[in-house]
Amino acid sequence: MTAVVVVLGLFALLFAGVPISFALGGLGFIMLVVGGFSPLMVPQGLYSSIDNFILLAVPLFLLMSNVLLKGGVGRDLFAAVQSWVGHWPGGLAVATIVSCAIFAAISGSSVATAATIGTVAIPEMIERGYARRFVLGLLAAGGTLGILIPPSIPMIVYGVVTEESIIDLFLAGIGPGLILAGLFILYAMIFARMGNNYRPMARAGWAERRSASLRAIPTFVLAGVIIGGIYGGIFTPTEASGIGFIGALILTGVVLRSLTWSRLKEAVADSMKTTVTIFLIIAGAKIFGKAITLYRIPQDISNIIAVTFDQAGWFILAVCVVLLVMGLVLEALSMLLIMVPVLYPSLIILGIDPIWFGILFVVMIECALITPPVGLNLYVIQAVGKARMAEVTTGVWPFIVLMLSTVALIYALPDIALYIPFKL
């Protein structure tokens, strides 16, 4: 009964328009006071949520992605990929997804990925005759690869909450990320084959390919340094974020000379705003998590789940349905911080691998990024493409189906996520 009251209270605050961080933190504080626990747990929770070496990677990855965004790296990256695959059926769409995947491997941010590639790809694809709704949906969905293909900010937060290895999570995200990108590419090529309005591109000459590739090589080198360093054990994800930020400054400020002081200030300001938002949500979730743990709500829910779902399959299905519903009203990070502390004890009871579950969870919250009314990528693409929200939401539904198909594949074939970190 207590759990039901808490859930109803939380959703009442959210529907009343209270920001998620204050809803979580405020409700947690009320629960502590009503339960007779020390209110000093609130400042302790605030401090402990921020004083974390691993979470230092979040603002640094955000700084890196915003510097790359303001430095126009997406333009060179897209041009290089386009020169190689632009003549394929749906070549511009393929180039868009490949560019999103590459930029995701650098930034770890879905919003930065959607904005960076979208700024370049949307006008060019529409000019070549691609259906506007398809283009907007493709970019909104392609941007979600930023939180699945490592490095990933939600994976870092998941690892902090569950105390699982972030490097293992990163490695586990490679297979599903490539499969999802592959499904997007396949759909784009089929869509292009079935349509007759878009104008195919001529095959680029070797001189054009060489010129475009040379300009994009520093971006590929930066991605290789970050990914290779993490997976090679040369540096931790937090250290990688710092190296990536310095690399982004060198790339945009020295090599490409595309970053001005005013754009750097904008990048720092945008990163600061996003970092404060994320850390406030984490702090609120920390207080809320402490309160529900003292009330034994996660333990009670775990016992209910263990009795209700005696098979892992039914549990996973129930979690996916709940995430789809919550994704209509909550953004990705909020869903992670609300649900994972409650669900995590049940994973042990049902024998579910926490790393595998983390990847499945991230794919599901990818859907939240492109489901109305609060899907963050929808608003990004709406702004970049100067479109109506109805156009963007109509275009993303086929990609949501592809994401759910990826979830089914990961469930049916767990090695898609687990092979690289544990068997390779």
Key features?
424 residues; mainly alpha; 79% helix; globular
Structural class by sheet pairing and helices: mainly alpha
N→C terminal distance? 46 Å
Count of individual beta strands:
0
Shape: globular
- Mean pLDDT comes to 87
Order of helices and strands: HHHHHHHHHHHHHHHHHHHH
Helicity range: over 70%
- As a whole number of angstroms, the C-alpha radius of gyration is 22 Å
- Low-pLDDT windows of residues: none
What's this entry about, in short?
With 424 residues, the chain is mostly helical. The chain has one domain. It is 79% helix and 0% strand.
Structure description:
The termini are far apart. The protein has 20 helices and no strands. It has one domain. It has 424 residues and is mainly α. The mean pLDDT is 87.
List the helices and strands and how they pair.
Elements: H1 2-15, H2 20-34, H3 41-50, H4 57-70, H5 73-85, H6 91-107, H7 110-127, H8 132-143, H9 153-162, H10 166-194, H11 206-231, H12 237-255, H13 261-294, H14 297-308, H15 312-326, H16 332-350, H17 354-368, H18 376-385, H19 389-412, H20 415-422
